[in-house]
Amino acid sequence: xxxxxxxxxxxxxxxxxxxxxxxxxxxxxxxxxxxxxxxxxxxxxxxxxxxxxxxxxxxxxxxxxxxxxxxxxxxxxxxxxxxxxxxxxxxxxxxxxxxxxxxxxxxxxxxxxxxxxxxxxxxxxxxxxxxxxxxxxxxxxxxxxxxxxxxxxxxxxxxxxxxxxxxxxxxxxxxxxxxxxxxxxxxxxxxxxxxxxxxxxxxxxxxxxxxxxxxxxxxxxxxxxxxxxxxxxxxxxxxxxxxxxxxxxxxxxxxxxxxxxxxxxxxxxxxxxxxxxxxxxxxxxxxxxxxxxxxxxxxxxxxxxxx
Length: 307
Prior knowledge:
- The protein is α/β, with parallel strands linked by helices.
- Helices cover 31% and strands 25% of the residues.
- The protein is built from ten helices and twelve strands.
- Strands 1, 2, 3, 4, 5, 6, 7, 10, 11 and 12 form a ten-stranded mixed beta sheet that branches. It has a two-stranded antiparallel ribbon with strand order 8-9.
- Strand 4, helix 4 and strand 5 form a beta-alpha-beta unit.
- Helix 1 (10-17) crosses helix 3.
- The two termini are 29 Å apart.
C-alpha cells in the first residue's frame, strides 16, 4: 500500500520514478480505509533529500501511511528551497497546542550535536514536541541527534563527546531477538554512522525503563527502546541512501574540516569508486517492522490513545 503525500512535493516524482508506491491525497480520500498517521519532524539540513529517504522507507509496506511534515517555528531554515516549509510543513507548536494525535512520529537528527541541548535555538519547542508525544503518539522513532535529544529530555541521559567523528558503515548485532523491530534480521547487520557524540551507556543501563537492543564496542549504543517499542532511539542513520556519506565527506573536505574516509564504505577505501551499499535491506526491514508494530498495537480510534 502507498504513502499519501501531495503531488507537488518534490519527493513525489522521485519516488514514483523509483516505483515506490505513492498516492496523491485526492485519490486516497476515495479509499475507505484508515491510514496510519505518521508525523515527521525534519531537522536535517538536507531537507528534501531527507524527505525522500524517509518516504522511501515508509513506502515499503503493505500499509497506507498518511504523512505530515512538521517544522520548528523557532528556527529559520537556511537550506530548504524557498517557500518549501511554508507549503508542505505544519507548525509543530500548533500540532502540540491542538493535541493532534499520530500513530507514529519520527524525529530526525540535526547538525547541532556539539552544542549543549539548551543552546539549540529550537530546543524549547522540540522539548514540547517530545513531551506531547508521550500521550498523543503511539510510537516515536528518534534518529541520531534526535535520539540523544529524546533520551536526554525524557530520562536525563547525557551525551558524551567522541575523540573523533564516528563516520562510516559499521556492523551491529541484535541483543533482543524477541523484539518486533528485529523480525527477519540476520545475526549481523550494517548501518551508517555519522556523529561526534554518543549516549552515556552506563546511564542507559542503570535506567530500568530503557532496553538496549543493539550495540557494539566500536559504535557504542545503537538502538534503545522504552515502553515496549513506543519509544525507539536509533543513534545512527539507517535511512541514509548510497551517496549520503559521500556527500558529507566531500562537503567537509571542501570546507577544510578534519575528516577521515568513511569506514567500510568505499571499495578498497578508494573514494573515486562508487560506495558499497550493505545496509539497504535491513533499513527497509527495520522501518517495515516499526510500521507493522504500530499498526498491530495502536488503537483504531486515536482518541483512545493513552500514555
